[in-house]
Model the fold of this input.
Amino acid sequence: MPEHDPIRPDRIWEDATCELFRTVVGPMDNNVYVLRCRRSGEALMVDAANEHDRLLELCRSLGVRQVVETHGHWDHIQAVPAVRDAGYSVAVTAEDAGMLPSYDELLEDDTILQVGRLRVRTIATPGHTPGSMCFFVEGTPLLLTGDTLFPGGPGNTSLPGGDFPGIIRSIERRLFARFDPSTLVLPGHGASTTIGAESPHLAEWIDRGW
Done:
């Protein structure tokens, strides 16, 4: 069996209401997440990054109804045309919409995405890109941060549109100030962490400048 079986992705978290699956795709080892409501069977995919055949199989097998993008960088959007062609709606922020080849809906800050009976709150976190967005699953500890926050610090701000003071403000005011230390941080690449593990290091990140 392949390491990343599209029919059986890694279930990385679950409770009585929902399941969160993760698979890793593409040359940049992007994390693609699928949040599934256990009561309705409806699901949301976060970042149609790459390997569209695998992601489309995930969409079909897990009941995906919509795809949302954490931001518009190329490595997070390679499968967008294919998932749209297959009939799945793709949403992104207005600030990053021009980075996508196509999209269907615009995401706004501090709104609720309904996934079956689950409520997913949008959190605008500009800095990595002007339109970077995180997603918090209400009633759970799940915070999907895209490339805004990783174990060990913020995402890269050296690319066009990046803003280091901006990403620090986003992390400090919109993540660290709002979420409990036990909140799980699920980034766009690599391993997960928690708010509690990262928040004590904010001053270090500011001092080092990246």
